[in-house]
Specification:
heterotrimer; A mainly alpha (about 110); B mainly alpha (about 600); C mainly alpha (about 240); B: about 600 residues; mainly alpha; 14 helices; 2 strands; about 0% strand; globular; C: mainly alpha; two-stranded antiparallel sheet
Chain lengths: ~110, ~600, ~240
């Protein structure tokens, strides 16, 4: 925007890598759709959904957003804050279970 | 830099090692050349582009400072009105319970978000970050300008809520649903909506500013300025900005969902509610979710206010005690550690909320862990003062006042961090005393110290010392008179957020104390106007300060002109050779060595290698 | 992208390189443009926004004692006499991933200063985004037609409607903003603003092809968020 890099970056990647990732994303999306199509249920469904989701997210971030080629200084700055989110998720799982427990207790059992 | 630089050992500067890794170069003053070209700046020409829609970070900083101070004064007046009611119930005839709750809410929100956050990050951040990092300006000056005007609109929306039907929201600054949007709470219509809108605008505007601060620190430092050579002020503001960028999203989401609950009638936070025997349309939502979102923002927010204060105070103490800051690296890591930990402690505000009871264990543990780096900082401030050449001027007085109030507020924080102690004390005046000490008075002391310290840079003139000392002693003693008795009120069980005590058993022992607190509050509030008077007087008749009046080492004092012009550095950017704390170096000609002094000029001194 | 060349600075690989970069002067992210660094940090902040939305959704869905509607049926379409589950969502995902791919290529051609290819690919991305927003509008109107509202829904828990409209609405807003910028950047690319380093309309700063990459980061992020929404809202 407002900065003039002394060195012009001219290095780019072969088009093949993008086409490969593109294709993989379609395949993975197709697989996750198939999870619903075949109506897998329970733990199998959830783990398949998560696996395909993280694979897709990882491919997009690593190659389309060039994170694979970035230096570790940037990659680590971006990924470490996710521990706060992970903690938030972890605690909220415990919290919704507790809320559900109290609701079932008071609404239906009658505390 | 090679690995052996990591030890902060003392060496003689004559060694042939050079900075920047160009080993073998005979020139000991060598610093790696600039990676990027000089910054392309837009210079304003007319009055409007120079002073109003200005892209110069220093002007934006002053704009932030003035607007934040203006809202802060409104917050101060609201606190006067509250104290008037608490100390002398019924004296102000217009004061109803509704008004009281609205004043409590607006006082809290204004002081935390629109005063302290905006002032530390927007005001001091904008002014000091480019100067202290040796940059010409913030990296995105246009975005920076928009950031201020978003803040301006946010303040406008907030203050507009005083004039809408129903008045501003009166649900307490935490805005807990379901009561905040239900009829019966003052300002449950327009008031809460404008509050949510104002917060969303503030977050949007702050994000623009925050990106500027972060990228300026990370990517636009001058030659030789490593992260571990930055003044602690920059570290504090930088880390606080990181927290803000990651914590404000939760506030944004909470505000948005609450507005939807209010406007569209969704039930994100609204459980099934019986009102006068009738079931409301709401149902199935989770009020505790809002509390989690709010405090996921709210606790880092405490450190958004505290970390810049920690950083600034470190610099002020070091300059005015003529001694390097004790344990610089420890201080940096403490700031970063506190910042990281602050995302894992939020529910210690919610011990009595009815959340999963197991959380108490987790959050009490993390809360007590966070006290460790905080205590390290306090020790380091004291050890910096130890055997320093202390100049007991106004700035130093504010610093000492800060340390005392902060330790006091911090220790009560350890009480409240423990579940078993917190449960009887929560929602009493003990809590009020705790958080006003630790994040009200303490950061305010830092702001005042910083104003007295940096005013000669901003305006080129010294503030009056005599008035300054009056200002300090009135504020310091007065603040203790306000908040120290409140601890006692909390212990005897006086609940917070009560409009009046009526004939409760507290009356006998609490009435006199409440009157005393109120009178002290009026005096302390009035004492703050001494500063405004002092500034006006100084601008008219103050004595000129000249270059580097405090004999400081850091870059902001080394600009070619005082006050610094747009672009800060004239033709050439400074080159940094050392950290910002080379005070009283044995063997040096003067008792300070500026950051730009090359090693060859101080060859016979024992400087610390940084 | 190989490491840029910086005078007087030696790059090191991996984690020791990270420590080396962090400890050095001037910049922490070596060779990274200011705008690109800014976009990354902004996206990090935005990630927290969407995370908060999805966490709220998790908390809301997990703690409701009322039955949650089966998304597979709610979002199914009846085509040629057959019920196909999640058909529209599958097509939307397909469209968004397609546009993500074209954007990645646009960035590549931008760096090669191939004005024509870059411009056409951005335009293709914009059209993909527009299609996505259009299909979302169709999906919204279909659900509203079936009686789903933010405050209620005929299939079960009222929070289903609330979270659905809020989260997809917020994501749709991101897509729409992206589409607007894509059209602007397509114009700027074709007009040659990046070749002649023409100054921006508002910021008055010089144009550069790196802006395409910055926009690309944003667009891929929008796609990334959709991956999560698709998994948690439609499949779970």
């Amino acid at each position: 925007m407002n900065e003039t890099n002394k060195k012009e970056e001219t290095t780019t990647h072969k088009i093949g890598i993008y086409l490969w990732i593109w294709g993989l994303l379609f395949v993975l999306s197709f697989f996750s759709y198939m999870v619903d199509w075949y109506q897998f249920q329970g733990l199998l469904r959830w783990s398949l959904i998560l696996i395909f989701m993280f694979l897709k997210a990882g491919l997009i971030m690593a190659f389309f957003m060039h994170l694979f080629w970035e230096r570790y200084a940037l990659v680590n700055v971006l990924l470490w804050p996710m521990t706060a989110i992970a903690c938030f998720i972890f605690l909220m799982v415990a919290e919704f279970k507790y809320t559900l427990f109290t609701r079932l207790l008071y609404f239906f059992v009658g505390g | 830099m090679s690995e052996d630089f990591n030890n902060n050992k003392i060496i003689h500067a004559q060694s042939s090692e050079t900075i920047g890794g160009a080993s073998g170069s005979p020139d000991m003053d060598y610093v790696r050349p600039a990676e990027t070209g000089d910054q392309d700046l837009y210079h304003g020409h007319s009055f409007i582009t120079k002073w109003i829609f200005c892209q110069d970070a220093k002007v934006i900083g002053v704009q932030y400072f003035l607007l934040a101070t203006f809202t802060g004064i409104i917050g101060l007046i609201l606190s006067w009105l509250m104290r008037l009611q608490l100390g002398f119930p019924g004296l102000a005839g217009f004061m109803t319970a509704e008004h009281y709750y609205q004043f409590v809410t607006m006082h809290g929100m204004i002081m935390v978000v629109y005063f302290l956050t905006a002032l530390f990050l927007g005001g001091f951040g904008n002014y000091l970050i480019p100067l202290m990092c040796g940059a010409r300006d913030m990296v995105f000056p246009y975005l920076n300008m928009i950031s201020f005007w978003m803040f301006f609109i946010a303040v406008g929306v907030l203050l507009a809520s005083f004039f809408v039907p129903g008045g501003p929201t009166g649900s307490g600054w935490t805005l807990y649903p379901p009561q905040s949007i239900l009829e019966g709470t003052p300002g449950s219509g327009w008031g809460i909506l404008l509050m949510c809108l104002s917060l969303i605008l503030f977050v949007a505007g702050f994000t623009m500013g925050g990106l500027n601060y972060l990228i300026t620190v990370l990517q636009a430092r001058t030659r030789g300025m490593t992260l571990m050579r930055m003044p602690l002020t920059v570290w504090g503001i930088f880390t606080a900005t990181v927290l803000a960028m990651l914590a404000f999203p939760a506030l944004l989401v909470g505000s948005l969902m609450m507005s939807l609950d209010k406007v569209l009638g969704t039930s994100f936070f609204m459980p099934t509610i019986l009102k006068a025997g009738e079931v409301l349309e709401y149902g199935g939502g989770s009020p505790i979710l809002f509390q989690h979102l709010f405090w996921f923002f709210g606790h880092p927010e405490v450190y958004i206010v505290a970390l810049p204060a920690f950083g600034i105070i470190s610099d002020l103490i070091s300059v005015h005690a003529r001694k390097n800051i004790f344990g610089y690296r420890m201080m940096v890591w403490a700031i970063v550690g506190i910042g990281a930990l602050s995302f894992f402690v939020w529910a210690h505000h919610m011990y009595v909320s009815g959340m999963n009871p197991w959380f108490g264990f987790f959050f009490a543990t993390t809360t007590l862990i966070i006290a460790v780096p905080t205590a390290m900082k306090v020790y380091n401030w004291i050890l910096t003062l130890w055997r320093g050449n202390i100049r007991l001027n106004t700035v130093m007085l504010w610093c000492l006042g800060f340390i005392v109030t902060f330790v006091n507020g911090g220790i009560t924080g350890i009480f409240l961090g423990n579940v078993t102690v917190d449960v009887p004390l929560s929602d009493t005046y003990f809590v009020i005393a705790h958080f006003h000490m630790v994040m009200g008075i303490a950061p305010l002391m830092v702001i005042m110290g910083a104003v007295y310290h940096w005013f000669p840079l901003v305006a080129g003139k010294f503030l009056d010392e005599k008035l300054g000392k009056w200002h300090f002693w009135l504020t310091f003693l007065g603040a203790y008179s306000i908040y120290f008795p409140m601890h006692y009120l909390g212990f005897i069980g006086v609940p917070r957020r009560y409009f009046e005590m009526y004939d409760s058993p507290y009356v006998t022992s609490a009435v006199g104390m409440n009157e005393f607190i109120s009178i002290a509050a009026f005096i302390v509030g009035a004492a703050q106007f001494i500063l405004i008077f002092n500034i006006i007087k100084t601008l008219k008749t103050g004595k000129p300060a000249g270059h580097n009046p405090w004999k400081a080492c850091s870059l902001e004092w080394l600009t070619p002109s005082v006050p610094p012009e747009h672009g800060n550095w004239g033709d050439r950017l400074p080159v940094v050779h050392r950290w910002a704390y080379d005070y009283s170096v044995p063997g040096a000609k003067e008792d300070f060595i500026t950051q730009t002094t090359p090693p060859s000029e101080v060859a016979n001194t024992e400087v610390e290698k940084t | 992208m190989s490491d840029p060349k910086i005078e007087g600075y030696q790059f090191k690989p991996g984690f020791s390189g990270m420590a080396h970069d962090t400890a050095s002067d001037q910049t922490m992210f070596k060779g990274v443009h200011w705008g690109k660094a800014m976009m990354w940090i902004f996206l990090l902040s935005d990630t927290f926004i969407f995370s908060c939305f999805l966490i709220s959704y998790m908390k809301g869905r997990g703690s409701t004692p009322v039955e949650w509607p089966n998304p597979s049926e709610v979002f199914g379409l009846h085509v040629f006499g057959v019920d196909v589950p999640l058909l529209l969502i599958a097509i939307m995902t397909f469209v968004l991933i397609t546009s993500s791919g074209t954007m990645a290529l646009a960035v590549k051609y931008g760096y090669e200063k191939n004005k024509k290819m870059c411009g056409w690919l951005i335009l293709a991305t914009a059209i993909g985004g527009l299609t996505f927003v259009g299909m979302q509008a169709f999906e919204w109107s279909k659900l509203i037609h079936e009686g789903v509202r933010p405050w209620e829904n005929p299939f079960g828990a009222p929070q289903f409607g609330s979270f659905f409209f809020m989260i997809t609405g917020f994501h749709g807003t991101h897509v729409s903003i992206g589409v607007i910028f894509l059209f602007i950047y397509a114009y700027k690319t074709f007009a040659g603003h990046y070749d002649e380093k023409k100054r921006g309309w508002f910021t008055s700063m010089k144009g550069d092809y790196v802006e395409i990459e910055i926009l690309g980061l944003y667009w891929h992020f929008v796609d990334l968020v959709w991956v999560f929404i698709f998994a948690f809202f439609y499949l779970w």
